[in-house]
Amino acid sequence: MNPNRKLLQLNRTMLTKLVVVAVMMFGFGYALVPVYRQICEVLGINVLTQPGEFVAAPVNSQIDKTRTIVVELDGNAQGPWRFRPTQRSIDVHPGELVTVTYEVVNTQGRAVKAQAIPSYAPQVVTPHFKKVECFCFQEQTLQANEARQMPVVFFIDPALPREVKNITLSYTFFEIGGAVQTASAATRTVK
C-alpha cells in the first residue's frame, strides 16, 4: 500500500473519530441542562419553586387552633443590598392565612436584578408550607438606592406532622446576571 494513501486513510479515520466526539460532546452539553434540573428537582436542591408551591388561598380551610407553630424568619443577602424580614418570628395556627414582610434596600448607585430562593427547616416542612403570594416567584428589579417592602402570604397545611413546633423560613436574595438599563441609558443608546 502506498504510504501517502495509508496516511490519508489514517487522517480520515482520525477526522471521523473527532467529529463523533464533537457531536457527542454537543449532545451531552445540550442534554445537561434538563438532566441537571431533574436531578435538582428530585433531590430538592437549588429549586426556585417546589412542586405545588403555587397554590390558591385556602377556601373554608379548617384552622387548627389547638396547635401553634413558631415560624422564624431569616434573610441572607448575597449582593449589594440589605435584606431582612421586618419581624423575626410569628406564631401561626395550621390552616391560618398569614402575611409577613421582607425589606430590601439596594445600596448601589445602579439598578440591579435579583432573585430570592426560599429554604425551609426542618426539611419535612417543605411540602406543607404553602405560599399563596411571594416575591420569590419572580425576578426583582431594584432601582438605584431603592427600598422595597415585599410580602409573603402563606399557610401551613394542617397535615404537618404534630411533632413540628418550629419552622424556619429563610430566603437568600442574590443578584442575577445581566445588566439593567436605566431609562436614561436606554435613551442614550437610541440616539
UniProtKB/TrEMBL annotation:
Family (UniProt):
Belongs to the COX11/CtaG family.
Q: Enumerate the subcellular locations listed in this protein's record, separating them with semicolons.
A: Cell inner membrane
Topology in the membrane? Answer: Single-pass type II membrane protein
Q: Which superkingdom, per the lineage?
A: Bacteria
For this protein, the record's Pfam families field holds:
CtaG_Cox11
InterPro entries in alphabetical order = CtaG/Cox11_dom_sf (IPR023471), Cyt_c_oxidase_assmbl_CtaG (IPR007533)
Protein name, UniProt field: Cytochrome c oxidase assembly protein CtaG
Q: Which UniProt keywords apply?
A: Copper, Membrane, Signal-anchor, Transmembrane, Transmembrane helix
Per the entry, what this protein does is: Exerts its effect at some terminal stage of cytochrome c oxidase synthesis, probably by being involved in the insertion of the copper B into subunit I.
What stretches pass through the bilayer? 14-33
Q: What is the species listed in this Swiss-Prot or TrEMBL entry?
A: Massilia consociata
